Amino acid sequence: MGTPSPRVMLVMAVVLAGISAPRAAHGQPNFIVILADDMGWGDLGANWAETKETPHLDALAAEGIRFVDFHAAASTCSPSRASLLTGRLGARNGVTHNFAITSVGGLPLNETTLAEVLREAGYSTGAIGKWHLGHHGHHHPNFRGFDYYFGIPYSHDMGCTDTPGYNLPPCPPCPRHGAAAGVARKDCYTEVALPLFKNIAIIQQPVNLSSLAARYAEEAARFIQRASDSGRPFFLYLALAHMHVPLGMPPEPPAPGRGIYGAALREMDALVGRIKQVADSHGKGSTLLWVAGDNGPWAQKCELAGRLGPFVGAWQRQRGGSSAKQTTWEGGHRVPALAYWPGRIPAKRTSHALLSTLDIFPTLVALAGAALPPNRRFDGLDVSPVLFGWSDVGHEVLLHPNSGAAGKDGEIETLRLAQYKAFYTTGGAMACDGSTGPAKHHRPPLIFNLDRDIQEQEPLDVASREYQAVLPAISRAYARALEDIATDNVSVADYSKDPAVTPCCSAQHVACRCQAPGAPAAVPDHRTERRATRLCL
């Protein structure tokens, strides 16, 4: 729940009593939120000394604030993104698991996005990159508060391409001219190519993954330029394809060390460095840049997955299965996070506050001078006191939903209370070796003291004095959280499927191809195909 600690309440009271936040003195700031995909906590060099591929991100950390106890709101794609853009957990906003290429629904339309709030406050709003919150009808980003959209509607492994890159298992390229696809694989999409959207039009299908990062950087620079020319503040949500598989083909042979993954990480780092440079060129100090991960690394991808750092979930690994993406072990949701705002955020700071991507929504809304949407509760906090160095206190309680491992999707079965973390369900996610780990329900819960056991190796002995002392507080916090959600204005997402809503630029061509080499970009044919008509509106 989004209940601030007494110390945070004191800081907020002091602010209201007369300390002006930077926004008040400098007008509405610009916001850039960069969301990396499947990036491990240890993939940031500033977090983990073994990582050498992130000089630009490390420079951001040195020039701003690095959060070391920062968490994704869920451990998989769609729920994590929905929570970032609403400030509410999936148990409230209805998005509890991933949407498919055939999904009719998306983020429920009665949920208000950060883009909608900021646009109402006078902002130009743009989304570039992965969406994965529904592509059909009014679930498309252009109808969810974004003036401009350029990107792919879901994860880039959810469609074939001509440049399939590196994946485990490898997937074949798209078929051409009616030729049958190669060997069919369970996790490969061979019938429909991955589309690239510009607003509601498909401009390329299949997308060229090799040039996608460069195109994202170019589109981001254009959006920032247009917004700056208009004189309006802007909000740019840049959701990267990195570090999700398939990883791209590096232009040069990978350097020794981390190989393909390291090359992709360097490419992502350079992209972030370019965005920072562009933002600074339009007025250094006018833009808050916030970088975070959407969840931890995808362990079953082996050498194509990121580094966990010290958050290895040793208890689970000893029993088989993953302790990373999809799970509620620290490796699944503790993510790298940085904020940079020269002249506003003090440089060279490391925050140990317990924070979340849930906090981005209320914090940016407050800094913009806007108001939170009424008639609903939020799980995020306005953490501007942490950004500005006035406090280093975040959540007292943070909830972690099931995200594709054991347990029902979206249910809250792991809870953090200060340094203690309680698990009511474990297991169910696949590791690199193919093991899944048995699903187990724990009543009473497993409780770890993260101050002493960051590897989550040895839960407290249920007979110990420490366990007996902390269990009542955890039980009360858990009961309060569930009651708060049950009595809230809760949304329900439509997870129904219909092949007719699959993004397809031209159903008459194999794999929905819509751009021949050298031909101009095409838009979907609305005249003959019901399938295409329903797709892009």
TrEMBL record:
Molecular function as annotated in GO: arylsulfatase activity; metal ion binding; N-sulfoglucosamine-3-sulfatase activity
Domain of life: Eukaryota
A single GO cellular-component term on record: lysosome
Subcellular location: Lysosome
InterPro entries per the UniProt record, alphabetical: Alkaline_phosphatase_core_sf, Sulfatase, Sulfatase_CS, Sulfatase_N
Known catalytic reactions: Hydrolysis of the 3-sulfate groups of the N-sulfo-D-glucosamine 3-O-sulfate units of heparin; an aryl sulfate + H2O = a phenol + sulfate + H(+)
Signal sequence bounds: 1-27
Pfam families: Sulfatase, Sulfatase_C
Domain Sulfatase N-terminal: 29-370
Needed co-factor(s): Ca(2+)
Keyword entries, A-Z: Calcium, Disulfide bond, Glycoprotein, Hydrolase, Lysosome, Metal-binding, Signal
EC number: 3.1.6.1, 3.1.6.15
Protein family (similarity comment): Belongs to the sulfatase family.
Name of this protein: Arylsulfatase G
Organism the protein comes from: Eurystomus gularis
